[in-house]
Design goal:
The complex is a heterohexamer, with 3 copies of chain A and 3 copies of chain B. By secondary structure, chain A is an all-alpha fold. Helix content of chain A is about 80%, strand content about 0%. Chain A has one domain: Na+/H+ antiporter like fold (Up-down Bundle). Chain A contains 15 helices and no strands. By secondary structure, chain B is α+β, with helices and mostly antiparallel strands. In chain B, the strands form 2 sheets. Chain B has a 4-stranded antiparallel beta sheet with strand order 2-5-1-6, with helices on one face. In chain B, helix 1 runs antiparallel to helix 2 (about 70-85). Chain B starts with a strand and ends in a 6-residue tail after the last strand. The chains are: A mainly alpha, B alpha+beta. Chains in contact: A-B, A-E, A-F, B-C, B-D, C-D, C-F, D-E, E-F. The interface between A and E is medium-sized, with 31 and 30 residues. The complex binds adenosine monophosphate (AMP) (3 copies) and sodium ion (NA) (3 copies). One sodium ion binds near residues 82, 108, 110, 275 and 278 of chain A. One adenosine monophosphate (AMP) sits at the interface of chains D and B.
Chain lengths: ~325, ~100, ~100, ~100, ~325, ~325
């Protein structure tokens, strides 16, 4: 327990988290500090590229563990199942429409790759190893939640709100969305080229990684803070409670699964992070197309303004601490 | 300069819908359009700005089409099917164009 | 398509004044506006271009507002208080819009 | 607000021709213009988009000029010599401007 | 021969080429993966800066070889001469107008700096040295081809198509175009500041170089793939045949010249690459101004959609293999 | 003296300064070399982030010197006082309106962070240490000059020109402007996380720093050259003389203060640089809001087209040389 608090303190005082907090504070104080959209997108492409490649190179180095397929499948099931939990919880805590609840649920079943990247950087800083294929699990968990949410809508939403799910091209857009293609592609190339490939580009993807992540989290803090300021109105107490409770429930599901699969402490922590985090890039875009009636201020503010900061500051050290205490080799 | 009457249609729509809109316009026989980036805005759903954003979910674009007046209705109908359930505005102005053979 | 008369107001103004302008517009009851980036221009104070610039001091933006004709004067008055001492131009065009309930 | 009649000319042209166009406009006595970036479009020569492009060869820009009606012809003639052999469209709208002393 | 196949295999499996292929595949599958224009331009500025500076520092380190001037001149002659070959070959293989043939010919006389950069990165990975001044040769080969093409147009094209060649300012634009100025400027600064200068910025231009190149080639793959998809129509069989045959003819001319000049195996391979590659940045911009009647979809698709992928995947290993077998010290 | 000339020569031949000169020359020759706005802004964010963090980590490493508070206060006083000197000098040398003089004066009291960054990179290359907290002094010197200028305007300008100073939100904008928040925030985080934090992101902020600075100065050279070309008209001889004399006067004030405070040679040189340099990012934006009647072509051309190149090429080696000769430990 004392260890966990110390670890939490260490994590909170890492430059990554402090830059996120700086961004949040600057936005709330209405500073005009801002990153051009192109730079923000460029950094996110770099992070996906690097994390995907390193994951693949890790699998090449340690061989394919029997766990890969099992964990992938478990990830898909979790992503598909968590929206039902989220939908029910929203029903208990809030008075949102069924369409809004389904849209929010899709975000929480899916994952936030930035939270994942930050957690893996924290693990590396602490010297805690994890399975390289967790990156593939992250990719696999992006889309299933959307399917569940659309199924929910088709069951419970007013008929006018359902048309979008049949939108032509929607599924190609979701499955081939840029982040997934880059993450999975880099993973595959890292795996294929292995140690040789890594040696060629290591200096680009490893040494500067955490520095780029600091800058990126600064921007995410700015975006989250600005979003919070603009959309305070949507944060009724029940909605806020959901944004804090749901990651803990998700993390619990992830922990149970990670222990059942026999993942390492690092791997289990990452699975908790994936389940606890909520998408704010891929899923919102899909929801705008498929469920335009759902309120974007609601799901973006929850995912980016509430759950993301919660996970970054308190969630990650908590999940790492718990996984370290309970998982194999922990 | 010899000018020809035309309609200038300007559609501000969510970035995620851009391709769907331009494909609908093409199907409706529109032969040309120009897409302008939008850096921010405000409306009933609040203010937004493109700064620091990574995703496409909250951005918008402006699509400008010049068409012969006779084609306006077909264009608006096509645009409306896409814009209907979405945020965004559609605005039509009378205009004159050079080189009418292009429209 | 059922269209409704509207005014399209386009204001090109210094980027440093963007927020002041949009806040003044909101205070004047304007319910929506769209901001377009401007990459360069020329006027009495010379030419400029956004390339390679770091600061906001020399850039401009274009703010486009669609309003009901009855609201035009309030809008222009609000805009004028902000634009008055600054560089920039204000241009109004007659337009037609779809979905008038939004304006 | 006291408004003055003006013409709003919007020229969408290849980015490589931007400087040639604005220089021709200045020679024709145009005192101001604003350049807007264009992120994509479609026409007889197909669709294009600025994403991921490195060069200037395929991009376009939109140049907007507000002029007094009396100056319109000189402007169009200047624009036409540049646009003539090139892709692009020229569109003129009736407008009203504030602060006419600027045009 | 077996060596060449092995080398080709190694090259094809390098991360750089695999990321290019990933981009190509993603674009053909209509993924929305894309790089902001500013990021693409930023990466290309970085690559020009780094390759120019390293070339100059290389010349400072190894002294000015008698070969520098001879190779520069040879490059200029090749760039000016190859358009005539290309123009004639297009006459044989296609039914394009004289204006279109001249415009395409200009691209193939000129060079693709990205292909050059990739080839030099492959040489470095394989430990094959090359003359630092090849970067200056690349810069020198950009413009002469344009002159030849305009001369061809003035001879054979309909009068209406000729006006542009006399366009005021055109030559300043071509000779002082951004890529040339940056490449030559960085080369000159690298040469002037030598080992001291290199020591100051080495960590920026050497270690991360291949990683940036991977990301850049991913984007080039996306752009090439999207271009191919949009412009399939222009690729008649004769046109396609030209796009594959012309690089081989160019490479042959480059090889003969490289051997005659006594270049190292690496230098000869790079001269082959320069002759085999086709410009898709500087020349298209010049052609839009000087020959607006020529069809840009044609020359961009050929240079970027056909010849560029061919050179990156098959050409480079082939040229390196042949030069290694035949050149001095090879 | 001989030493100073040698040092000046060395500095002038460093890649950073040469790339700046390349940019200046390219712009004056009307090359189309240019950086996208987003890339320029991204590089400036990187430089602020890195210099702020390193400054903070430096303070953490060497402890808080009694000099920190004294130097901060001295910086504030210098920034507030120099505009009066500048205003008077402009009155002697030029026939500008009081409003224009006040606006220019604000720029020269404030600082150019890029000049500061370049000078500290030159010091590092030469192995001359300096106080880490100089970065905080730089941040503290940004705003006071604006206050002095507005006070001057309120005293001497025509009534119509005064309204802007009372512009609501102006002071929040100035004090929380993006550069200050990033610089001070990174400084604070560097200080808090100390050696551990530095170890995490060192590879991103230290090794590539000078390379990024080279690229950034190339762009600044382009922007300065383009500005000069567009606004030659405003550079009457008296105005030009001011642009060259004022940095020397400012540097003199900085030197005297640095010696009085007992700063190290490196620290005194940096204080000279801060006093000698003129803002061209934060202050112009503030002047556009507060003094729209002042002519931006005038102050931007002076600060960016005259004083900035002067400081980069001649000023920095001069200031370092003099500080080295006179300061403690020099
Ligand atoms: N009256 C208007 N004039 C111009 N743009 C508008 C207007 N109303 C809405 N928009 C644009 O459409 C977006 C969505 O509007 P809304 O659906 O009202 O939130 C806004 O962010 C603006 O970019
Ligand atoms: N007649 C005009 N038409 C279009 N834009 C203009 C016009 N005049 C000025 N502008 C824009 O307003 C900016 C400032 O104009 P000025 O105050 O005349 O220097 C210019 O850089 C242009 O972007
Ligand atoms: N009717 C139109 N309305 C708006 N923009 C157009 C139109 N036609 C062409 N354009 C623009 O001009 C570019 C070149 O057109 P084109 O020469 O027809 O290929 C297109 O990519 C569009 O950006
Ligand atoms: Na989740
Ligand atoms: Na070639
Ligand atoms: Na100063």
């Amino acid at each position: 327990m004392g260890d966990m608090v110390a670890l939490a303190g260490q994590t909170l005082l890492s430059p990554m988290i402090l830059f996120f907090v700086l961004g949040l504070a600057a936005a709330l104080a209405r500073s005009d500090l801002s990153f051009p959209e192109a730079i923000a997108k460029g950094m996110s492409l770099y992070l996906l590229f690097a994390i995907g490649f390193k994951g693949g190179a890790g699998v090449a180095a340690h061989g394919v563990d029997a766990g890969l397929v099992a964990t992938l499948l478990a990830g898909v099931v979790l992503s598909a199942a968590l929206p039902f939990l989220a939908f029910a919880l929203l029903g208990l805590l809030t008075r949102l429409s069924a369409t809004d609840r389904a849209a929010v649920a899709a975000h929480y079943g899916s994952i936030s790759i930035v939270t994942f990247v930050t957690a893996s950087a924290v693990l590396e800083s602490r010297g805690i190893p994890f399975e390289g294929y967790m990156v593939a699990v992250a990719a696999a968990m992006e889309a299933p939640a959307i399917l569940s949410a659309l199924w929910l809508v088709a069951r419970v939403a007013p008929p006018g709100d359902r048309a979008g799910a049949a939108e032509p091209g929607l599924w190609r857009e979701i499955l081939l969305n840029g982040s997934i293609v880059l993450l999975v592609g880099a993973f595959a190339i890292g795996w294929t080229t292995g140690a040789d490939g890594l040696a060629e580009i290591d200096a680009f993807i490893t040494a500067p990684f955490k520095g780029v992540l600091c800058l990126f989290l600064l921007d995410m803090g700015l975006v989250a803070g600005r979003g919070l300021r603009a959309a305070r109105g949507v944060l009724a107490p029940g909605v806020l409670a959901f944004g804090l409770a749901m990651p803990l429930l998700g993390a619990g599901a992830g922990l149970a699964t990670g222990l059942a699969l026999g993942l390492s402490a690092g791997g289990a922590a990452l699975l908790m992070v994936l389940c606890a985090s909520a998408s704010y890039i891929a899923v919102p875009a899909a929801m705008r197309v498929a469920l335009p009636e759902a309120n974007p201020a609601l799901y973006l503010t929850l995912a980016l303004g509430v759950t993301f900061p919660f996970n970054l500051t308190l969630g990650i050290p908590l999940y790492i601490g718990i996984a370290g205490a309970l998982a194999a080799g922990g | 300069m010899r000018m020809h009457a035309a309609k200038r249609v300007e559609i501000v729509i969510e970035a995620v819908m851009e391709t769907r809109l331009t494909e609908a316009l093409e199907r409706a026989g529109v032969t040309g359009y120009t897409v302008l980036p939008v850096s921010g805005g405000g409306g009933r759903s609040g203010r937004w700005s493109r700064e620091g954003q990574v995703g496409r979910a909250t951005g918008m674009v402006a699509v400008v089409c010049l068409v012969r007046p006779a084609r306006l209705d077909a264009l608006l109908e096509a645009a409306f099917t896409v814009v209907d359930r979405h945020m965004g505005v559609v605005c039509v102005t009378d205009a004159q164009v050079l080189r009418a053979e292009r429209f």
